[in-house]
Amino acid sequence: MRQLFRVLAAVVLLFFILAAIAPNLLAPFDPLAIDPAAAFSSPSAGHVLGTDESGRDIYSRIIHGARPSLLIGAMATAIGLGIALVLGTIAGFGGRWLDFGIGRILEVLFALPGLLLALVFIALAGPGVTTTVIAVGITAAPGYARIIRGQILTLRSSPMVEAATVLGRSRFHVLRVHILPNALAPIGVLATLGLGQAILWAASLSFLGLGSPPPTPEWGAMLSAGRTYLSLAWWMTFFPGMAIVLVAAAATVLGRSTKFGGVR
Amino acid sequence: MTYARPLAHKLVPAAAALAAALVLSACTPATSTTENSADDGTPVTGGTLVYASGDAEPSCLDPHVGGNYPQALVASQYLETLYTKDAEGKLIPWLAEDSTVSEDGLTRSVKIRDGISFTDGTALDAAAVKANFEHLLDPNTASSTGYLALGKIASMTAVDARTLELKLKTPDNSLLESFSMPWVAIESPTALKRSQEENCAAPVGTGAFKIASWKKQEAVNLVRNEGYVRPVASSTHEGPAYLDAITWRFIPDAATRYAALQSGEVQVIDNAQPDAIATATKTATLKHLDAPRPGASNRIELNSSKAPFNDPKTREAFVHAVNVNASIDSLFFGTAKRSYSPLSSVEPLAYSDDSLFDYDPAKAAELLDAAGWTERDTEGYRIKDGQRFSLTFPVSTSQSIPAEQSIFEQMQATAKDSGIEIKINLLDLSSWYGDLAKNNYNLVSAPYTKVGPSVLSILFHSDSTIPAPSGYFANHSQVKNPALDALLTTAGSTKDEAERKDLYTKAQKLVLEGYYLLPLYDQQNHFLYSDKLKNVGATTAVASPLFFDAWLSN
User: Fold this and answer.
1) C-alpha closest to that of B343 among B278, B297, B393, B312
2) Which residues of chain A have a Cβ shorter than 8 Å from any chain B Cβ?
3) Which among A54, A230, A231 has the least Cβ separation from residue B409?
């Protein structure tokens, strides 16, 4: 059963990655081509997932939306991990006071709901795709930082580090050769798990009109545009929503199975 | 003012009779007209009306300050004007009783109605009106709409308690129309003496309701004015309003607002979405009030002050490169009719020309070639001297409904086929004002509501490129044409109604044929309300609803 889920998740993720790399292979229509006469068409053979208020093909827009949506998710995760790696390493390796200081800062950040933190950042920096990416990255960072710190603390008291210290290796050498490479292994898992969350957050921000400008086919923005016509054209909201759910779920399933599969 | 004066005279006896009737607390004024009360049953006193506005919450409830439509909507409930329009669209005196103008058109005398008090107890008299005009003309008030409407006043004197004499710089045949707008509403002079901050929070007027409190970001709470005396009639009753109170809420999201109406949480919504109107008209429990705003039509203005639109050919090419009709048909579900005029269809002097604005990409291409935009870049956009034909289009999200934003997106897609790039920037109101002030736009859509055709002067006279004290200027197409200026100036001061019409027609022809604007439709002003709310339909001269006659059935 778990195997089946894993395969399904991999298929979904691969599909959307392919869509992000080569959307024209999968999408039958231009995502920006309007056809007012065909506006609000329900799903049919011509438009499998229906059309939006401008008669644009929803399926094609979802396929073309994979790139901005996934890219925002991936970049945000990368930024989050980058910040986390620096903070986590300093906390885990920098001694008691630094650990204490960073620990308290992280706790304050934890106290704020993730999305609120992102909104505060956007309010300060102004809306846009770049800001959204950074905002989501910053929001994700505290969670990663804590895990990385824990990993480093465990490694610090491991026999190999003790041996290296006894052999008189410098702290920097120990960090570079023994601790970081071993601490990085679980990050791959974290990244896969985090990707789903980041896509979700990015979509939320786009939904609020803080992400990609029109007419970019970004999933969150599509969801937002469709919401106005929810009672009239449910497919405008439902299918972009499904795309977000599928990718976020697939990334999570893959991330978890890798962890349970036993990366050490 | 030849057209308004005889009317005013005709109404004097009726109004005087009404005033007398009110004093004697008689029951049915002879002049009352009914809207739709026939099958609504007997009015019930009591209840709180919850109104949900889709507009941005005003930062000041005094419409003298700044002066936009959201302010007018709420202020119509607690402030009244010197003049107003009756159900047939005729200008009638309200807080004023009468007005006369001298032969040279330079002296206007306004007679103020007797026996009316503001809700703080201050009496309405000529000095009170003078204080209001002074407030509007004071640069510290930062009025834009009201300031422009009274711009021709040179000086004023309260001759006696009920007569205000205005000396004008030049004759102004739109002054009484201006007096009918909520942005020139009359407030208590005692209240105006307070600081601007205090007056913004709770302006004091003569209206059927008064402000009880204002919880920002939540609601303006209005309560009935128990001492209300209805000075002029187009209403079905007199004395205080039926409703105990009005809760004026702000729900910016259209779908949420409509859902709140459906669930009965609110009884009236404004800025109703076309698809919601289409659904609601099929729903027995919901009713629709369509009240197009006077003044300008809803249009896109083409900034002629800078490239590429400083070349008339490019403006003409642009209007032929976009397919507005197809968008309106698909997005508005029959709730909006295409306009080909700078003026609203409710303006008697509106002039239309539908031959100018057809969708014709071939003609657009021809014009662009002729204007030198012959080459294309890798993305297919036309270029000239290395510059792409790119149009910046700041869109205020609070001043446009989603369907409108969809029209803009569709224009963006269609214009691309002609090699024209449109960059839509969705902005909040203050960033949008900022872009206008910095001349950082090629296209812009801004509503402008005013009673009468004199709005043309505000939108197209070269003087209107100079910012008002608030920093706002209304001539967004930045047309500066001495011939047009002359037409507008004469049209605004002539005493001959036929000449006025002729000159305003010429002026409209000039701006339409100069492709300074792309008319879309009337300024949409759709209200949906619960069938529990009866007697809705009365509006001010700017088409904002009045709830004096409205009542809630159980």
Assistant:
1) B297
2) 32-34, 36-37, 39-40, 53-55, 209, 213-215, 225, 227-232
3) A54
